[in-house]
Amino acid sequence: MFELASDSVISKEIDGEVTVIDLSTGIYYAIEGIGAQIWLAAVAGQSRMAIAQKVDETYADDAPQAAHKLLAALVAAKLLVEGEAAKADADGAEIVWPSTYAAPVFTSYDDVSEMVALDPPLPELPQ
Q: How many domains does the chain have?
């Protein structure tokens, strides 16, 4: 199962794109294509295998490999961590997958990192 790497990672899905911000570094990310649904499934606690199986059932032959690559990039960017057991309710998470395949796109931006990074964190943010 996947979960957010820390409390300083926040995300929002808007119109099929997910924006993720790591408040500790100030780096923000755009996740597009089916990457948005992969992110939503991951933060819902679905396992790597469950996500890859859904992508395989829904899209082209190379789609599951793209899903694995995106998940590896999200872990490498320290946005997600992967654990052993899946959440009990994760498989029931309602993720609406697009009917047509659009390769996942993961882009990072650090142009405002100095303004966004919170060091020390604001008192109203959990530490």
A: 1
* Any domain includes 121: no
The Cα-based distances of 106 to 41, 57, 71 in angstroms read: 16, 22, 10
Query: Which tens digits make up the pLDDT trace of 19-68?
Result: 999 988 889 999 999 999 999 999 999 999 999 999 999 987 788 899 99
Per-residue CA distances from 87 to 1, 42, 117 (Å)? 7, 11, 31
Tell me the residue range of the domain where 82 lies: 2-116
Type of residue found at 93: A
Q: Are 68 and 52 within 8 A, CB to CB?
A: yes
Indicate whether 124 belongs to any domain: no
